[in-house]
Protein 1
Amino acid sequence: MKVILLEELEGRGSFGDIITVKDGFANNYLIPRKLALPATEGNIKHIQSILSQKARKLEKIRTQAQELAKKLDGAEITIKKPVGQNGKLFGAITTSDIAKALNEKGFNVDKKQIIISSPIKNLGLYTIKVRLHNDIYASIKVNVEEQK
């Protein structure tokens, strides 16, 4: 029996794939658990329309990420924190602090998109990467200054 997968099945396929399985497997397992639909013409057209909508949506998100990357690339933000002796910060600057500073400048960036290897604990200028999409990155400069 031919079925259209509604979820990824390990070793079988992913969403929208049309696969051939035994009738019992389809009728007793895949279809009742809503993991697949019978591969009728109507179902195939329905899944194709869903796939095309997803593709358009992903392309729109990708385009928005590219536009944001152009605006964000090379941007510089300044974060002021209290400092102890030897230029060490009280606490550290984390992705949350950087995201907050970027949002204040008008860039809509989530803290999960900011990539730093470890929290910033010293004064200085740092180059930080921001992951906006699967393969779209922007570099920003974070200037850490003493709060007076």
Note: The chain is about 35% helix and 30% strand.
Protein 2
Amino acid sequence: MKNLITVALLCMSSVVVANPSAPAQADLWTNARPDVQVSVVRGKAMDTYELSASISDLRTGQVLSEPKLIATPGKPAQVQVGATGADGMISVEFTVTVADSGDMATYSSQVKDNGVAISSQSFTLAVAR
């Protein structure tokens, strides 16, 4: 049985708001090669940050998901999106944490094939003003 993982947001002691642009479809995630682009900018309200991601398939260019989050400094925000239930069903999990200073954010992610990690990465990015 194939299972679709919708954008699930987990936040440790933080308010996070999701705004997925389109409903996910399990078939789009079959053997996908995810390309994750992330940006972090200061939010309109004090001590908030807007996190935007675009996840597309490198093979086809098809946009798979575009989660948008609002987070506060020092509070990790996590996104899980994709599909599980059979080999070749790909999912992406990533966490973004804005530093207490608000100038930098850390990103870490895993790409999974039916729940088994096949790739991971971590990096630090500057927060746009």
Note: The first strand starts at residue 3 and ends at 11.
